[in-house]
Amino acid sequence: MAAASSVTSPLCTWLVAACMSVTCGGDQSTCPSMLGSSSNSCNNNNNNNNNKRRLFGGGSSSSSKWGRRKRVFLSKCSSELQSQRDLISSLCGSSFQGLMTSCLAFEPCNQYYASNAHFSSLFGSGGNVRVRSNRRHTRFNRAVHSGEAMAVAVQPSREVATKKKPVTKQRRVVVTGMGVVTPLGHDPDVFYNNLLEGVSGVSEIEAFDCAQFPTRIAGEIKSFSTDGWVAPKLSKRMDKFMLYMLTAGKKALADGGITEDVMNELDKARCGVLIGSAMGGMKVFNDAIEALRISYKKMNPFCVPFATTNMGSAMLAMDLGWMGPNYSISTACATSNFCIMNAANHIIRGEADVMLSGGSDAAIIPIGLGGFVACRALSQRNSDPTKASRPWDSNRDGFVMGEGAGVLLLEELEHAKRRGANIYAEFLGGSFTCDAYHMTEPHPDGAGVILCVEKALAQSGVSREDVNYINAHATSTPAGDLKEYQALLQCFGQNPELRVNSTKSMIGHLLGAAGAVEAVAAIQAIRTGWVHPNVNLENPDEGVDKNVLVGPKKERLNIKAALSNSFGFGGHNSSIIFAPYK
């Protein structure tokens, strides 16, 4: 009964309000107040009658007539008051069905009457609620349509329908596979070993003649083959960014132990692909423009689909038969982090169990190089390419373009454990913000970066003290490096264990692929216990503490939590956090 009472209380309130709107007779003004006393209501009406007699000069005959009317009115008053008391009694008691049929300005449906037993048990009626006969229904309908005014609240209190959702344990996301295509190798271990040794992947551009450009160096991939990963016919038609993406994605699957047998057992409706690109198929589109100078008939019929940033994810999903979430995100150089975060969220929300996520770009072509030269963003240290990318060094003169792809195989923890997957690290969370300041320049006080890092910590439930390794965005630009460093010190400056480095010092800036490749570097640091050096850091900027930055040699570090930053043109900021799986 206590439970029933707690349920009926808000409903009763609604029904009382509804019934108070029901008119008594044809004149609303003569309806006694439900909350007032009968004597007050009747005395007020009696005073009105006396006033009428004085006004119209009524004598004994009039007095007799008004007396009869008074007695009729008092009888009606008493009858109506008793009816309302019964109504309130039914609210506090159990005659729920009678209340519904007497108060509402519409006829309850047959399903309502069929649920008589349910309402009886719910409101403690003990089976005394009787279903009204069709004759009663007819009388009720007639009364409703007889011209009497009636106002009803049509929606009960929300409290009646609201039920607390069952508490569910949040699904955890782990990394079970990695795939890379980079200037330092196309295998995660080869790639990271080169980073640990301080090897630079920056060299002179060989893909085209760039003698006319002031910048002639880049983190260019010299040797790359799609054999065994992409069908030969597609290899000839696709843009490089798609070839890098498909290859890195399939390598991540292989690294994660997704064999053909395992693939056949996966629920493909719960497997998705979310790999983005900042620049898309620039080469395919540029070739189409050149062909159009001759005739539209010379254009590649695949130039439009193969130029769009989403097509890489789509083609990979078609190849694998994965029917889960599939799209791409393009937020300039922050693209990969956005994709990784959103892919993880699909798993956390229960929309997928397995996701391939990351980024890919291949913009080292004349139009790409020329565009960044026009922005005055690139280093012109052509005589010494390996020294060109030098984050936080006072002699830096711009970033170095790079190309490649990075893909993570993200998986729901229990799903990974059931198939016996090797777990590299756990994805704890991340965040993104916008500077809302300038297209290419960072906010002067680093407000957007600070907010992004703080939100990432809050979302992942990680304390500042636990983050002891940061793979910074640090691109080797005069303004960007210092602003990020100052923001990081404001967030983590009290942590004596903090170590910060920049993968871009050795491979250049891979644009939309940078975040994913650097996430691989962060995960490899967690796995190996080694963080790679910052090369070319010879004369740090004024105010930069070299004790925070990793030196020219690799360093041993027991990582508690690793944060990886990626920022992009447009003021896009992103931070993601990984930790050892426990």
UniProtKB/TrEMBL annotation:
The signal peptide stretch is 1-26
> What are the protein's UniProt keywords?
Acyltransferase, Fatty acid biosynthesis, Fatty acid metabolism, Lipid biosynthesis, Lipid metabolism, Signal, Transferase
Q: Which Pfam families match?
A: ketoacyl-synt, Ketoacyl-synt_C
The protein's matches in PROSITE patterns, at most eight in alphabetical order, are given as: KS3_1, KS3_2
Q: Which family does it belong to?
A: Belongs to the thiolase-like superfamily. Beta-ketoacyl-ACP synthases family.
Official protein name in the record:
beta-ketoacyl-[acyl-carrier-protein] synthase I
Gene Ontology annotations for the cellular component aspect, listed alphabetically: chloroplast stroma; mitochondrion
Q: Which SMART domains match?
A: PKS_KS
What residue stretches are annotated with the Ketosynthase family 3 (KS3) domain?
A: 170-580
GO molecular function terms noted in the UniProt entry: 3-oxoacyl-[acyl-carrier-protein] synthase activity
Species source reads Castanea mollissima
Give the InterPro entries listed for this entry.
Answer: 3-oxoacyl-ACP_synth-2 (IPR017568), Beta-ketoacyl_synthase (IPR000794), Ketoacyl_synth_AS (IPR018201), Ketoacyl_synth_C (IPR014031), Ketoacyl_synth_N (IPR014030), PKS_Beta-ketoAc_synthase_dom (IPR020841), Thiolase-like (IPR016039)
EC annotation?
A: 2.3.1.41
The domain of life is: Eukaryota
**Which BP terms does GO give this entry?**
fatty acid biosynthetic process
SUPFAM superfamilies (alphabetical): Thiolase-like
Q: Fetch the PANTHER family from UniProt.
A: 3-OXOACYL-[ACYL-CARRIER-PROTEIN] SYNTHASE II, CHLOROPLASTIC, POLYKETIDE SYNTHASE-RELATED
